[in-house]
Specification:
Elements: H1 4-36, E1 53-56, E2 76-79
Amino acid sequence: MTSTREKRRHRNASRRRPLVAALAGAGLLLAGFLLARPRTSQVPLQVQGAPSLQADPASVDLGDVPLGRTVAVRFQLANVGDEPLELTQAPYIEVVEGC
């Protein structure tokens, strides 16, 4: 036989379920909003009326690299113009020897 205390506990638990579900849903919506919003960097504009791509660092000196050795370099790219930047062709890298 079920006691009165157990019945009360069961009733209270069933009343909390919608509240817990609503809070969990609100948390998921907030997380989705934070992940989906566009990330814009605050790069100062340097060009008016056109897009302009800026790489940071502008140049890299890797020193003497033995033939066959792989090196990696990271660049931060930013559009410092006030128009949208669109790449219409595949980008390429030019290696300048002896610089």
